[in-house]
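Case study 2.
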Amino acid sequence: MGKKSFILGGIVGFVLGSRAGRDQYDKLKAMSQDLWQADVVQSGVSKVEETVGGAARNQAANLTDKVAGMVKDKIHSSGSSRTSGRTDFVSEGDGGPMEAAEPRS
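Prediction:
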């Protein structure tokens, strides 16, 4: 990756620093477009797109499964507290979690 960045930086520097004018810029632009359209480059681009797309789909599926599991757990745990019939809560006073109060007799 470092070598590619260096070459790209050299090209950009040449274009920005060139005193040759528009002709050199046009030549460089045409060469870069030809290079981009080359079969070898487009083949590499296709492989990268497939690899990244596959990885993204896998990660999306994993994330969806994790979120679904968390939601099911949350629904299950909140559903069991609702069936107890107790709705009053007391704070521990230290900013800690809320706990259900013991029923008063």
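The mean pLDDT is 78.
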